[in-house]
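For practice. Supply one:
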Amino acid sequence: PVRSQLAKAKLILKMPRVKTIVSTPDNAADKKMILLAEGCTPEAQPRLRELMQEHDLEEPVPYKHTLGYEYLTADQVLGALIPKDVIGEIPTSFETIGHIAHLNLRDEQLAYKGLIGRVILDKNDRIKTVVNKTQAIENQFRVLPMEVIAGSHEMETLVIQHGYRFKLNFAEVYWNSRLENEHNRLITEVFKPTDCILDMTCGVGPFTIPAAKRGCRVLANDLNPKCVEYAKVNCKLNKIDAKAMPEIFCMDAREFVRHVTSRNGKRKKGPNGEEVQEPPLLFNHAVINLPATGLDFVDVFRGLFDRRVWKETDLPRVHCYTFIGKQLPEPEGAARPAMSDKEVKEILFRGVVERVEGLLGVNFSDDEAPLVREVRDVAPNKRMVLISFRVPAEAAFSS
């Protein structure tokens, strides 16, 4: 009763992870102490005096509570140890990939990278490895150039997203944990269980596996043999039914699309050795999840389709992720009139549409205008967007 009345009067110490009822200095068995807010005395708080008299409480005594390293947050520790005027914002936010924390330290922060990594390890129980990106991603397989700055050098880890499990080696494959909700949105809001999906740059399976579990037929592909290896492992890890098991290929994205669609109507060996005609592949969606260069692959859909095969079927929709800036380039000569952020974004989005039109060799009609939506901020002048469009018949059947 005393404690609740003190709390109601806002006289008790409020500090995260600090108990407000403690033992007396002599550890008396029949007594406990209640920690009052800093500066709370009977002279400063008349209500405290009233409660002391009402419950026959002793006079408050000074109490010292030492907050050690284990109490402080990573922000507090690094803020105390690293000069903020040298490195600016304290670098404690990071991407989590299973047991791995991925940082993008700026040049002026690199002198403190060991300390930063150690503190992040100490303050995050699930983190066992801290890595820092060392340069821009420019290699063929889009694998992150990195160095371990603290903890274990074990790069194979397990990521769980929306109940699906993905095993991967972060040093060998492309992975972006920040796209978790985007993966789920496309699969649950756009794909239907009866759809056929081409996952042109599948990685370790963040689109392929949930789509297959949803009931879609999935043909997946990645140029990186390690991605293909882990995608197959993850199909088994997520217990995909044999009938829904994705076909997974390892080739260039354009080559993959041409390969799976060129099988239309060809004869192949049946289960008993007999010749059977392979049915045409009529797919509903193609996903290109490679923002840095994926838009370049859109030209594969020009002239890809056989009008006789697709005459009674809707042409597929393409969903391609790409990067754009946040500002328009400065014009030469006269200054640009002031524009709102919305107007700038509309012009940048229109630039993505025009690039797709150039790759397909057609202009979209108003009825088939693509949808461009912002996915996330990537950098101060960089954002990721998704452009979704149905392949126009003029492009699909062009010679």
